[in-house]
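Ticket #4471: structure export looks truncated?
Reporter: QA, pipeline team
Priority: medium

Steps to reproduce: submit the single chain below to the structure queue and open the exported record.
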Amino acid sequence: MSFIRPWAIWRRVQYLVGLFLSLGVVGVLIFFTNFYVPPNCFDRTANGDETGVDCGGGCVQICQADVVPPRVVWTESFEITKGQYNVVAYVENANKEAGAPVLNYTFQLFSNGEMVGEREGQTVLPPDSIYPIFEGRVFVDGAEPVTETKVILEQSELWLPSTVGRDQFRSTDINLISADSRPQLYVDIENTTLLPADNIEVVATVFNEKGDPVTASQTFIDNIEPRSTEGIVFTWPNPIAKTIKNCVIPTDVTVAIDLSGSMNNDGSNPPQPITKALEAAGTFIDNLRNNDQVSVVTFDSKANLVTGLTNQHNTIADTTRKLKIDPGEETGFTNTVDALKLAQAELGSDRHNENARRVLVLLTDGLPTISGNADVVKEAEELSKSLNESGIEIYSIGLGNNVDQQFIRNIASYTDNAYFAPTGTELSRIYTQITSSLCEVGPTKIDIIAKTKTNFAPLQ
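Actual output as written to the record:
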């Protein structure tokens, strides 16, 4: 009978253990060489010294829990042509040193509660300021205007460090020309940093005297070298002068004065209210600014162009004060329709300054009248609407206690543009209010904001 000696068994165990250890080492080497991936910031796992999934700690990416979500300040649509809009949202990023290189959004346009247009897009959101999101040529369904605009911001999954924000770019030499024809806005953009900037998006937003946005445009710059300046231009297909009442925009004004016989009915010697009305109109003309132009139209049974657009204010004011009612017009008509047509022709003539807004200030004491059966009241109201749509803002003044107030409101461009003067004494105050309305020294501004995604820290 044979038996295995203990030392032989132990030697065999040692051989087997050595074999398995060798195989284990080889297996580990093969695994680490071919399959093992050390903890990193791209493995979609919270490992290593990260404070979140692939963020915080030693990772460049900032965790969403550590950032303040973007806030929509305002959203607006601006009609460029019929059924086509430029859409802008101002979005605030309150994080001092964190930005989103990719921010997805969706614009929704509504008309009386019904969504008529939608546009998705992607933008960059630098840190520590308010930045615009712009979408141009958004088409809508239907003929009704857009009454509400919304923007939906998706939660950005990627936030990166960035210490360069709005102060990287500075806009200078802002010059708006042809505001009442085909507006062009010339701007010099300076890169104030020591780093080059590529693929720069620039949005220009124009605000009115109340601080409300009235229009916007967008352009792009391929590159701006450090501490250098590039000239850019923004364009609009339609006039924007009417919407800007800042004093930098001049005004071409036509003053239309009713000289029909009824304007003498409220007084005797001297005739009132026409003398006070003419004096008030003359003072209004005197108070226009140097770069404003003025023309005068009178109307009774017919309309007459007293003077074309000119900046000779004192001369025109004196001429206006000397106007008289033709005695033959005591039993004539009030041809408001022809006065509107003549004012429209003069404000559209070669004498019109294409940089100026166009305004008609019309004074009358009654409804339009004309021989025959034509509905001249309706015609005057429709014509005044046409003038307003063409860019001519109408201020209407009703003189006397018996004036048809509804007609005066109907021909004014806006409700606030309709005035009523029971007697000639109130006219000076009304003309002063109109003068102030034409030129507001307020918060009207042109906001130029540039942004680029080249300022974010690289992920690797």
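Status: closed, not a bug. The export was complete when the record was re-opened. Leaving a note from the reviewer for reference: The chain has a mean pLDDT of 87.
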